[in-house]
């Protein structure tokens, strides 16, 4: 057989080919960066310009006053203390008077942290660098499509803030247990992060037993009981105690107040109020299933569950041969199912109650994709890109609408509300008398005093008739039936209404009956009534 002929290769041609490939790669990177930047700008603008919601009132007011007044018995806060301590700490550190603005920036930071954590999880589990982007991108878009571009993910509440802490705890636990020798410091950090998620919102309490069972059962074949206790269980518990220290402090300082305003609040007067209320509500199991369906199976949620099922089906037959540990994905599944089951307990049902499982579904997408064998990896990657494109089409109108707002600070709710607070201060002449309102953010933005009885917005005030006699001592509140007498005993410098349709008319009647003059504020729905000079 003769020798093959030699073919001369032109170096210039090789350089042009390499340059073309490099230019194409650079173009793809630029396109990805521009697309990601546009999405983040739109998300930021949507968060910052989202109208003030009544769910924010109690959270922001509690954060402003948490280091000055008892959180539960005086301020009437009805959640675990994580958000007021975190946001209130930011207020103290920065010395800011822009309360809502800083709160919305905190929400935006949590979104960025969540996106970064999904990328970190993809980087830690997906071997090929070019396959990490579709995994993290689809997981993030699927998470966002589950109702998080609505008030639950936009407002300064405790609905979204636990998400990055929960994802960080999950990632650190997997990282610490995957090492040849478990890493106690990493596992302790996982326990701390999980505890912080629970301290933000009690609905994430389901994470604790799931993580505890994982600590006891994972790697049974390679860890002795003594080593497991020393390197896994004890560090996890100690980290959890560190993260949960503020909650333990409140349990020691205000035990009955905390329990009355959290557990007993939601199981007693909260449910009684809604049973008689004529406002739209979902009280039955069939109705709850419909709400859950809208949150979990709308848009990206159904796609995420479908892809997880397909990836698991592709990976399962040869999972043992390839030596890929299945427990991280099983843990994600247990977390998602536990969170889903717990979501049905509160009555009435609201969409935000069904959000806790979603971050674990997003993480499960990445872990399931990482387990897909090489033979079908190309098809799996294409499925992720297609899913991301579908989610993007569904989310783009809302995200793109936020891009102009991201560049117009005057349209941001925090800027507008602060301007109203300053105008209210000017109208009252900086009076020391409190402002009566179920929207306490406005006067607090202006540095004005409020009644502790209304510090939680409408959420304790409306339940006053339904409080159990044994719990009344733990609540500082007025009651709708005795509002006139309450205000007459300590006349307000101003009254602000506009957010609470069922209860605002009583405040407005008092204002008109006592000669308060109406004044306009920048926020269209706000109505201000300023006391006569002799009342200030």
UniProtKB/TrEMBL annotation:
It comes from the Bacteria. Signal peptide: none annotated. Keywords: Membrane, Transmembrane, Transmembrane helix. The chain crosses the membrane at residues 30-49, 97-121, 133-154, 184-217, 229-251, 295-314, 326-345, 357-376, 382-401. This is Glycosyltransferase RgtA/B/C/D-like domain-containing protein.
């Amino acid at each position: 057989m003769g020798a093959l002929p030699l073919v001369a290769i032109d170096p210039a041609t090789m350089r042009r080919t390499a340059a073309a490939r490099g230019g194409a790669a650079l173009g793809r990177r630029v396109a990805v960066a521009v697309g990601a930047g546009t999405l983040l700008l739109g998300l930021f603008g949507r968060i910052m310009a989202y109208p003030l919601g009544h769910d924010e009132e109690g959270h922001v007011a509690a954060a402003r006053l948490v280091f000055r007044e008892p959180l539960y018995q005086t301020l009437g806060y009805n959640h675990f203390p994580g958000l007021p301590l975190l946001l209130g700490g930011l207020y103290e550190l920065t010395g800011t008077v822009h309360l809502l603005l800083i709160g919305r920036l905190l929400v935006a930071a949590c979104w960025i942290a969540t996106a970064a954590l999904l990328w970190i999880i993809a980087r830690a589990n997906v071997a090929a660098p070019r396959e990490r982007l579709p995994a993290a991108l689809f997981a993030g878009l699927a998470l966002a499509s589950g109702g998080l571009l609505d008030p639950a993910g936009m407002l300064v509440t405790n609905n979204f803030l636990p998400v990055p802490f929960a994802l960080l705890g999950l990632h650190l636990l997997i990282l610490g247990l995957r090492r040849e020798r478990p890493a106690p410091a990493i596992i302790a950090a996982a326990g701390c992060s999980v505890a912080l998620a629970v301290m933000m919102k009690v609905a994430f309490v389901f994470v604790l037993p799931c993580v505890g069972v994982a600590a006891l059962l994972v790697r049974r074949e390679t860890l002795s009981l003594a080593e497991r206790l020393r390197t896994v269980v004890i560090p996890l518990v100690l980290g959890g105690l560190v993260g949960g220290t503020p909650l333990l402090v409140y349990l020691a300082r205000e035990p009955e107040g905390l329990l009355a305003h959290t557990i007993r609040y939601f199981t007693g007067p909260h449910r009684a109020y809604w049973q008689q209320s004529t406002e739209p509500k979902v009280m039955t199991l069939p109705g709850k299933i419909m709400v859950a369906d809208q949150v979990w199976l709308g848009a990206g949620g159904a796609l995420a569950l479908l892809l997880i099922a397909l990836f698991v089906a592709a990976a399962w037959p040869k999972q043992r041969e390839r030596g890929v540990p299945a427990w991280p994905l099983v843990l994600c599944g247990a977390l998602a199912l536990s969170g889903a089951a717990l979501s049905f307990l509160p009555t009435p049902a609201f969409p935000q109650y069904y959000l806790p499982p979603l971050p674990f579904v997003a993480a499960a997408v990445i872990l399931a994709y990482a387990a897909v064998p090489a033979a079908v990896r190309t098809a799996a990657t294409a499925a992720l890109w297609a899913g991301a494109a579908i989610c993007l089409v569904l989310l783009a109108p809302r995200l793109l609408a936020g891009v102009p707002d991201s560049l117009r600070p005057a349209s941001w709710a925090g800027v507008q509300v602060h301007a109203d607070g300053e105008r209210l201060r000017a109208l009252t002449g900086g009076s020391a008398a409190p402002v009566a309102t179920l929207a306490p953010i406005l006067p607090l933005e202006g540095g004005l005093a409020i009644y502790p009885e209304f510090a939680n917005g409408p959420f304790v005030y409306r339940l006053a008739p339904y409080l159990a006699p044994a719990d009344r001592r733990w609540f500082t509140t007025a009651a709708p039936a005795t509002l006139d007498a309450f205000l007459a005993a300590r006349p307000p410098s101003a009254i602000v209404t506009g957010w609470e349709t069922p209860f605002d008319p009583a405040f407005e009647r008092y204002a008109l009956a006592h000669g308060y003059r109406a004044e306009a504020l920048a926020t269209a729905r706000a109505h201000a009534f300023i006391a006569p000079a002799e009342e200030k």
